[in-house]
Amino acid sequence: MSAAALQRVVVRMLHDPALVAAVFGGGPVPGVSAEALAVLRATDRRAYGADPLRRSRALGPLVEEAPASAALAARGGADLGALDAFFSSPQYHACVMARGVLVEAFCAFLAPRAGAVAAVEAAAARARRRRPGPGPGLVRAAGVEAAEVPAGTVARFAALRERLGAAPVEALVGGGVSLVGLPLPGRGVEGLLVAGGGVSTAAPALVRLLAGLDAPRPAAAVAAGLAAAGLDAGEAAALLDGLVADGLLEQR
Amino acid sequence: MSGFLSRVGALPVLGVGVSTEYGAAAAPGALDIAGLRAVAPHNAAFLEVGVEVAKGLDADARAWAASGRPATYHFLDLNLDEPEDQDAAWLDGVRALAGALGAAWICGDAGLWHMGPRDRAHMMLLPPILEPDAAAAMGAGVQALRAATGLEVLPENPPGAVFVGRMHLLDWFARLCEAGDTGMLLDAAHLAIFQRSRGHAARTGLDGFPLERVVELHIAGGVERVGPGGFGYVEDTHAVDVLPETWEIVEAVVAGAPNLRAVVFECERNRVEETLPVFARIHALLRGHPLLGRGAA
């Protein structure tokens, strides 16, 4: 096991007492070599719990970035332990080992309790970090994400986000946030567009077009795809020009 | 003589200085660096500025830079062992920061500054894994950053509650210095923390360490804590109460480090008058060392 991989196990141990117990339990631990286990067992087990506030500190920025999902998963603040449990979850451990983005793993962890609102905040998180890869052609611009979500999800997200206000962590920790009367998702799907730091609905066809341009593609190929969907050449060119002008696509 | 030991002679002698981080000088109870310079300029001959590239320089750091006084740049957001961490945007930022400061060199803890990609929610600081392959990877990172910036890069031994790996920290850093063809910033307080955590005496490992590699020395106070389960450890508080083991390490390093060019007393959260006795002891220990003879005041 490389030192880099061992370092990631240490990170996980510092956040998850269950993993510490497994390491020091004497048996094998999935994903950790016998040699690495021997190295870890030579340390003082108590050291991994020396900072009892580590999880809380690590949780803060995650909740700040996914506050609506956190509010739903924590029942408006009544069950904050549901958020803290992230650090003992398979999503957390897999994310650390894969050098992933924690907030995306956090949204995936919250999804069973937060529903599609977690998909909205996961898309927003991806948009903030998006740096399109190199190459010529048309590509979805930095800061832009698109996805399909159950109809009504964006309205539900927006209503909850408004209730959380400008200091969502404080709102959740102190007093709680009412979840009563929030719009509910309906049947069918709607397009979700994240652009310019904001979240809105969009036509599903547009969302599919943008989602398909994660990596650069030749403009002619994109136009051909639009023609196959029924647009004539002039309409396709005008649509793509408009998306570039709006900052949703980047033409290289 | 080749490599770093042939280059170190070109590095400036900075003397005794202090350090700051973004926004630190504006915090309640912060060290008044201008006030310190007013009463004892030889205690603030240079400023070590520690910032994340994403934050940039605060007003106090910019004012120091504008004064033209000596400075060093301390990174707070680089995993030296991860080549992908030295991306073009980050390197552009580092070059801009170091250039604005007129930094004499770059330094920073050779540890884990963030898990996964550099991200606000990922920041932390853990010691390196004390195994040979980690030293080799960090050495490559030192060489890459030096090539990208044109400045010497001095890795620092980080603090920690747990040190994982089979090597002694000083043996590991000797290997890193060799792999990176570089010198180092030895933090005496952090080393004292390591020695305690392993049950070693303060000077264990120093006899075999290439002290000619030590260019910068950090001194800071620490507080003994007892955590859950009765786990005893030292918190690196940067207070003025310097542990006896830290002083013992400082004495040994000063006596054997001919290329020492800078000493920082990390005291950014203390009043000037509280720091003066510590500075006096530092100057007494450095008496006769070339660092004081040629240092800027």
Describe the structure.
The complex is a heterodimer of chains A (252) and B (297). Chain A has 252 residues and is mainly α. Chain A has 14 helices and 5 strands. In chain A, a hairpin with a 2-residue loop joins strand 3 and strand 4. The mean pLDDT of chain A is 95. Chain B has a single domain, classed as Divalent-metal-dependent TIM barrel enzymes (TIM Barrel, Alpha-Beta Barrel). Chain B has an 8-stranded parallel β-sheet with strand order 7-4-3-2-1-12-9-8. In chain B, helix 5 crosses helix 6 (169-180) and helix 7 crosses helix 8 (244-256). Chain B is globular and about 45 Å long. The two termini of chain B are 31 Å apart. The relative contact order of chain B is 0.16. The mean pLDDT of chain B is 95. Chain A binds chain B through residues 2-4, 6-8, 10-11, 14, 39-40, 42-52, 58, 61-62, 65, 95-96, 99-103, 129, and chain B through 81-82, 112, 115-117, 119-122, 124, 126, 128-129, 131, 133-134, 137, 161-166, 197, 225, 227-231, 233.
Question: CATH superfamily name of chain B?
Answer: Divalent-metal-dependent TIM barrel enzymes
Low-confidence stretches of chain A: none
How many beta-strand segments of chain B? Answer: 12
Helix content of chain A: 40-55%
End-to-end separation of chain B in angstroms reads 31 Å
The coarse silhouette of chain A is globular
Task: Determine the mean pLDDT of chain A.
Answer: 95
**Biggest sheet layout of chain B:** 8 strands, parallel
User: How many separate domains make up the residues of chain B?
Assistant: 1
